[in-house]
Amino acid sequence: MTMDVLKDMLEQQKHFYEEVPKRQEASFSTFTQLILESTNKRCDSLMAEIQELKISLKYSRQDIDELKSDQKKHSAEAKDLAKQVLEIKSKKTVDSNDNL
Fold first, then answer.
1. What is the rounded distance in angstroms from the CA atom of residue 77 to the CA atom of residue 32?
2. Of 81, 57, 77, 58, which is closest to residue 69 (Cα–Cα)?
């Protein structure tokens, strides 16, 4: 081998090893970018899901409040009906005792 051939080989080797870190940096940068994009998409998805859950919870709370209100109303009506039934029974008892 001649000196010129050796110099050419060394120059090629030098060029190759200068390019390796650049390729590694580019690959790492691309990988990092993909991870960040994936994480951002997942975060956006989670935020949208959380917002949907908040809205659903709001409506559920409204429904529960309405049901509680209805329950109180129906409970009061049931008590009134029970009183009326007792009054009717007591009137029947009084009327049947008066007839005797």
1. 66
2. 77
**Measured CA angle at 42 (ends 36, 45), to 5 deg:** 140
DSSP-assigned letters across all residues of 16-72 = HHHHHHHHHHHHHHHHHHHHHHHHHHHHHHHHHHHHHHHHHHHHHHHHHHHHHHHHH
Per residue in 21-37, pLDDT tens? 899 999 999 999 999 99
**Residue in this structure with the two tokens 């998409």, named with its chain if needed:** 41
Look at the alpha carbons of 50, 52, 55, 57 in this order and tell me if their dihedral is positive or negative: negative
Q: Enter the pTM of the model.
A: 0.54
